[in-house]
């Protein structure tokens, strides 16, 4: 592969090797194909891999930040043990001996369920399954149920289609209209850009549905800014309009779908005026959307993660699925209501190890703080946290911190001393990304990409895989557990090898999962009990049960452009958290642009800087998620730990706040 000319022309570029094919492991649906340029044992540049069929050479604005973070001198490079409150370097042998002793002691004295394995979203690569298997060998420890990420959408689409299956992003080339519904690819999935740009160039139109004018508004021909959490009413309004105009796909509705009468009754329950008022979208915009769905076909709807973050998120997702059905876009090339892909799907599910023991205790991730505190018989005696920063990223952050403080021994495996590290007793420094060999599947497309060890990890950092193999040596199940990376990877991807993928090809570049459909449900058959699409029949009436008078704003804590979740480094350049609010609302409260204010929720308050935003709805304030508590930006301290009604997701966007002037 040729060198990037811009790079090879750079001064001092001698010694640069041919770029190494890599795959981005950051927690993002793009899982982009990348090229890592190595000089003198360091990666000096990351670019998009032009040979990747999805991101096609593009790389997002975060990519240079990933490189800075990987090469940061703030990375922890030796294991650390907290001694009398201070972090003290220890050898790997001492660290793992102690960890093994404590694990054995917990199993012997309180049973395996006294150990909590908290696996986060930091890297969802194939070998991470082998890490989880370690805890299954221990006899089945306490693990997690539910999710901080996409559980609600997954479960909601499961009710409609059978399993959630999405259109291959390459099928966007067949769309005449693309609707980005609660999704912000310019910030959160830049790897889609080649397809969105190509769509625009060939005259397809793009609609953005988001209470905020997100970064993706720049792509959109039509911007729809509904009241947060009311998308179900918007979808019903659009469907009602389509039916009023006689544009519905009667054949699909009558032969491929169940519950038509119930769904029509649901549409009849509210007048158009009531629906329009509930979602706060003008009738003319509803009409334009109806036309886009029914007359601008094929219409591809890309649901984001924005809709999940509500208690009744499943109704929102299901109402949009139903709109896809009414407008005849389900099973249609260039159409579909797509949401995500199974990042663990390509691997042998048996290897998680659940079969090694009877079902064990699982704590609810969205309420992890109180779940830990309330765990009895046995209480949580030890927690092992990998690829996560729950004190920063889970809701009700102070309670999560308090819960970890109540756990006698906490092991944190990460790269940096972050908010969670402050509540840990042992820190194990991990290799990540291109410092390790692994395979990467995606929750945004159908390709599996390689990671080879492009460079050595800094200092004594070790890949999680190495750490768990070394730990495993200390246990009686070592004989079964200890295998080489290659042995485990071959076992993990057995399903792919059986589908005809060649092992060697996996290491050359992205490989498509052979049986992943381009267009799901094209034959009109669904994997539901009746084989038909399931129209929803219930949407909860929308009285606002939240305390709108005391807390008048909905707080949207969205994916910021510049970084991914809490992946920053200690000491990052920070002032108070910036929140965007409508100029009119801020002015009414006497808060000038750029001035400090208090963001207040029932859980607490945070000093923030207010930015006036002409484009914001008056009932919303928004900010980026992932600021650290230690940097005064811990917005999750204000967010209640609720759980969604379906799918055990985390309704972050139910958070209601007030903004108060600081004198
Ligand atoms: N740069 C960057 N990239 C990321 C991340 C990041 O933090 N930063 N996070 C990664 C992760 S973990 C994930 S899961 C994905 C998420 O990817 P996305 O789903 O694209 O991103 P979000 O910011 O979570 O939410 C998308 C949009 O939903 C909007 N929204 C909020 N409420 C509503 C509503 O009621 N209705 C509608 N229609 N829209 C609403 C928000 O304003 C936001 O713009 O992105 C990944 N990529
Ligand atoms: N307010 C608010 N909070 C949210 C959300 C929201 O919308 N609003 N969205 C939620 C979403 S979508 C998600 S997915 C969660 C994310 O929740 P978490 O996964 O807990 O948070 P991240 O900040 O992604 O932390 C990932 C960590 O993994 C580490 N890491 C990276 N690679 C490796 C590795 O190979 N090994 C190890 N051991 N560590 C590694 C990184 O340094 C980082 O600290 O946050 C949720 N939090
Ligand atoms: Mo996520």
Automatic annotation (TrEMBL):
The keyword Cell inner membrane does not apply. Residues 17-74 form the 4Fe-4S Mo/W bis-MGD-type domain. The keyword Iron-sulfur applies. CDD domains: MopB_CT. Pfam families: Molybdop_Fe4S4, Molybdopterin, Molydop_binding. SUPFAM superfamilies: ADC-like, Formate dehydrogenase/DMSO reductase, domains 1-3. One of its GO terms (molecular function) is molybdopterin cofactor binding. Keywords: Iron, Iron-sulfur, Metal-binding. PANTHER family: OXIDOREDUCTASE YYAE-RELATED, TRIMETHYLAMINE-N-OXIDE REDUCTASE. Belongs to the prokaryotic molybdopterin-containing oxidoreductase family. This is Molybdopterin oxidoreductase. It comes from Solidesulfovibrio magneticus (strain ATCC 700980 / DSM 13731 / RS-1) (Desulfovibrio magneticus).
């Amino acid at each position: 592969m040729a060198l990037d000319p811009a790079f090879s022309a750079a001064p001092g570029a001698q010694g640069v090797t041919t770029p190494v094919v890599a795959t981005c492991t950051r927690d993002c649906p793009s899982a982009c194909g990348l090229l890592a340029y190595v000089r003198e044992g360091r990666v000096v540049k990351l670019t998009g891999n032009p040979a990747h069929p999805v991101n096609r050479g593009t790389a997002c604005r975060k990519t240079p930040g990933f490189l800075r973070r990987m090469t940061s001198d703030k990375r922890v490079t030796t294991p650390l043990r907290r001694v009398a409150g201070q972090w003290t370097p220890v050898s790997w042998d001492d660290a793992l001996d102690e960890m093994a002793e404590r694990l054995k002691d917990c199993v012997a004295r309180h049973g395996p369920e006294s150990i909590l394995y908290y696996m986060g979203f930091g890297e969802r690569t194939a070998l991470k399954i082998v890490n989880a298997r370690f805890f299954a060998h221990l006899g089945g420890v306490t693990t997690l149920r539910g999710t901080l990420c996409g559980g609600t959408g997954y479960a909601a689409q499961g009710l409609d289609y059978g399993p959630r299956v999405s259109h291959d992003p390459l099928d966007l080339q067949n769309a005449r209209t693309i609707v980005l519904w609660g999704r912000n690819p310019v910030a959160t999935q830049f790897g889609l850009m080649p397809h969105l740009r190509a769509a625009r160039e060939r005259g397809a139109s793009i609609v953005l549905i988001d209470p905020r004018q997100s970064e993706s508004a720049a792509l959109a021909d039509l911007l729809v800014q509904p009241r947060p959490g009311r998308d179900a009413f918007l979808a019903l309004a659009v469907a009602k309009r389509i039916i009023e105009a006689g544009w519905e796909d009667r054949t699909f509705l009558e032969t491929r779908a169940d519950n038509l009468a119930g769904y029509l009754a649901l549409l009849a329950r509210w007048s158009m005026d009531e629906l329009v008022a509930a979602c706060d979208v003008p009738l003319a915009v509803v009409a334009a959307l109806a036309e886009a769905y029914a007359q601008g076909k094929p219409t591809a709807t890309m649901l984001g993660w924005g809709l999940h973050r509500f208690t009744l998120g499943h109704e929102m997702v299901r109402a949009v699925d139903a709109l896809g059905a009414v407008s005849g876009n389900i099973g249609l090339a260039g159409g579909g209501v797509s949401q995500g892909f199974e990042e663990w799907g390509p691997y042998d599910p048996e290897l998680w190890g659940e079969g090694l023991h009877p079902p064990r205790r699982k704590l609810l991730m969205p309420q992890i703080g109180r779940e830990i505190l309330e765990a009895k018989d046995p209480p949580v005696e030890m927690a092992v946290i990998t690829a996560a920063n729950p004190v920063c990223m889970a809701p009700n952050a102070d309670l999560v911190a308090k819960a970890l403080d109540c756990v006698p021994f906490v092991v944190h495996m990460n790269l940096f001393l972050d908010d969670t590290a402050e509540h840990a007793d042992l820190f194990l420094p991990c290799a990540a990304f291109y410092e390790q060999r692994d395979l990467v599947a995606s929750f945004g497309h159908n390709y599996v990409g390689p990671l080879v060890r492009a460079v050595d990890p800094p200092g004594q950092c070790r890949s999680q895989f190495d750490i768990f193999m070394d730990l495993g040596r200390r246990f009686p199940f070592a004989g079964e557990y200890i295998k080489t990376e290659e042995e485990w990877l071959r076992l993990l991807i057995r399903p792919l090898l059986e589908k005809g993928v060649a092992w060697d090809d996996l290491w050359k570049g992205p490989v498509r999962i052979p049986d992943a459909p381009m267009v799901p449900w094209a034959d009109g058959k669904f994997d539901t009990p009746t084989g038909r699409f399931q129209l929803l029949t219930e949407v909860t009436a929308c009285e606002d049960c939240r305390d709108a008078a005391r807390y008048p704003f909905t707080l949207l804590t969205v994916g910021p452009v510049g970084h991914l979740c809490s992946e920053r480094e200690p000491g990052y350049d920070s002032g108070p958290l910036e929140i965007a609010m409508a100029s009119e609302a801020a002015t009414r409260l006497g808060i000038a642009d750029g001035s400090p204010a208090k963001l207040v929720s029932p859980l607490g308050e945070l000093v923030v800087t207010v930015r006036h935003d002409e484009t914001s709805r008056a009932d919303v304030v928004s900010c980026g998620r992932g600021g650290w508590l230690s940097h005064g930006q811990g917005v999750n301290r204000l967010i209640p730990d609720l759980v969604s009604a379906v799918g055990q997701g985390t309704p972050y966007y139910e958070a209601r706040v007030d903004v108060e002037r600081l004198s």
